[in-house]
Automatic annotation (TrEMBL):
Superkingdom of this protein's organism: Bacteria
The protein, known as: ABC-2 type transport system ATP-binding protein
Organism: Nonomuraea endophytica
Domain ABC transporter: 2-230
Upper lineage: Bacteria, Bacillati, Actinomycetota, Actinomycetes, Streptosporangiales
Signal peptide boundaries: none
A Pfam family per the record: DrrA1-3_C
Length: 298
């Protein structure tokens, strides 16, 4: 739980009073543009960085006054992998087990359990430098679980992974949740938050601008989205006419308030001589939530 976290670097205010709560056994996804303060928040909550103001309690321990107890209660998978390319997967996990004072036999048993759990047993004796990106990320997550922490921080764990590896890591995260692990996840993949999170907190310019379940946030955005597929040359003119942002190269997207608004929109394009190749109506997504909330906060 964090209340009023403040952090500045020189004259730059990075966090302007962050409030967050992660209920036991749930996953909170922290979304925000680059530079919004996501990683700074994680670094404070994991005792890697002191706050300038506010307070935070993790696992029942204050992150400033009782940092040692906090570190005993948490695991952290940072943006950069912490495993050693020159060691095998097994050697990496046994090294971490030693750092957690698990002892030789107990550490080897824990490494073996995690290699099985994260589907790395067949590669246990290969150097990590030969692993794929997805395998390295699973090993990194396994390393953060060596001490079986009840609380886990995942800072953009799937960045750079291919779609298959990302889905495989999602399955591992779901297993950890089912086992009762509390997780704070930062991500730039909105689909990832939609798939995994019990709650989503959107952070912009160092402040939380929304905090609710994915479905509630989508309802908050409200109206259905109209996606219009146009010839690429017509997109700028249609976007200006309808005051709607361009999406993909051939598309613009706008919120519609019922059938009359839809008919009026299509009539405007017809009168302007802009042909529409395809019309699609869809419910709001977390992408819509993200763009609307961060635009309002900018």
């Amino acid at each position: 739980m964090a209340r009023g976290l403040v952090k500045s670097f020189g004259d730059t205010r990075v966090l302007g009073g962050i409030d967050l709560t992660v209920p036991t056994g749930s996953l909170l996804a922290l979304l925000g543009p680059n530079g919004s303060g996501k990683t700074t928040t994680v670094r404070i909550l994991t005792t890697l960085l002191p706050p300038d103001g506010g307070s935070a309690v993790v696992g029942g321990h204050d992150v400033v006054r009782d940092g040692v107890a906090v570190r005993r209660a948490i695991g952290l998978t940072a943006q950069q992998a912490t495993v050693d390319d020159l060691l095998t997967g097994r050697e990496n996990l046994e090294l971490f087990a030693g750092l957690y004072h698990l002892g030789g036999r107990r550490g080897r048993r824990r490494a073996r359990e995690l290699l099985e759990r994260f589907d790395l047993a067949d590669a246990a004796n290969r150097r990590v430098g030969t692993y794929s990106g997805g395998m390295r990320r699973r090993l990194d997550l396994a390393a953060s679980m060596v001490s079986a922490p009840p609380i886990l921080f995942l800072d953009e764990p799937t960045t750079g992974l291919d779609p298959r590896s990302r889905v495989e890591l999602w399955a591992v995260i779901r297993e950890l949740l089912a086992a009762g692990t509390s997780i704070l996840l930062t991500t730039q993949y909105l689909e990832e938050a939609d798939q995994l999170a019990d709650r989503v907190a959107v952070i912009s310019r160092g402040r939380v601008v929304a905090d609710d379940s994915p479905e509630a946030l989508k309802r908050q955005v409200g109206a259905e989205r109209l996606v219009l597929r146009l010839a690429p040359a017509d997109v700028p003119r249609a976007s200006a006419l309808l005051s709607a942002p361009g999406g993909a190269e051939h598309e613009i997207t706008l919120a519609v308030q019922g059938p009359d608004h839809l008919r009026h929109t299509l009539d405007e394009l017809h009168r302007a001589g802009i042909p529409v190749e395809r019309v699609e109506l869809r419910t709001p997504t977390l992408d819509d939530v993200f763009f609307e909330l961060t635009a309002v906060a900018a």
